[in-house]
Write a structure and sequence with these properties.
The chain is an all-alpha fold. It has one domain. The protein is built from seven helices and no strands. The protein starts with a helix and ends in a 5-residue tail after the last helix.
């Protein structure tokens, strides 16, 4: 099985564009969940493609082993995917969704509500996403400040401003680290799946 890592990076970018229109615990969790689901879907499709491509190249004495519905290539890869879930890091930025369930559907609904609340308050949270292959995610400082109530008012004392800027930087670093970890874990999971596929196929003496 060959993995096209550019496709996977594109999946990461798409998840970011769709899920991170606003920044909150729920939107970041949704982003991680969507990345995981996209990777599982892609790897599963590659397993099917590989199965169809190599089945006719398997030596006759190995055909039954390859096709076996209990221990053959396809079921072995499916079992690996199910028994090796992608590791999603924990994130906690605020308190608005602590009592909510964390499955994809509930998260998506919660994020939509959050978007409506923010737009309704007259605040547009725009930011730049520098994804996959770039070292940093740039987030507009004002967006972060508004989203998490860091600034109390415009005319602050210098010490208060310094403290708030420090809080903002810490928050940005936390978000950046979370996003980077999601991408790192996803790529490592895909590489492990590819390695396992290669190991399995080598046992069937594929040509």
């Amino acid at each position: 099985m060959k993995v096209n890592y550019q496709i996977l990076k594109d999946n990461i970018q798409q998840a970011a564009k769709e899920d991170l229109k606003i920044l909150s615990t729920s939107s970041l969790r949704l982003y991680a969940t969507d990345v995981r689901d996209a990777f599982v879907k892609y790897i599963s499709s590659q397993v099917r493609t590989t199965y169809n491509e190599v089945v006719d190249t398997i030596p006759e004495e190995k055909q039954m082993d390859f096709l076996n519905l209990n221990s053959g290539y396809a079921i072995s890869m499916t079992n690996w995917i199910n028994s090796h879930p992608m590791d999603l890091p924990h994130i906690e930025l605020d308190e608005e969704d602590n009592s909510m369930q964390t499955d994809g559907v509930d998260l998506r609904e919660l994020v939509k509500k959050k978007e409506v609340q923010i737009v309704g308050a007259g605040t547009a949270l725009s930011f730049l996403l520098l994804v996959s292959g770039l070292k940093y995610w740039a987030l507009l400082a004002e967006s972060l400040a508004i989203a998490f109530g860091i600034y109390e008012h415009k005319n602050q004392q210098e010490e208060t401003r310094r403290i708030n800027l420090q809080k903002e930087q810490e928050l940005q670093n936390k978000i950046n680290a979370y996003i980077a970890t999601v991408e790192k874990n996803a790529m490592e999971w895909a590489k492990a799946a590819e390695k396992h596929s290669i190991q399995l196929l080598s046992g069937y003496n594929t040509k």
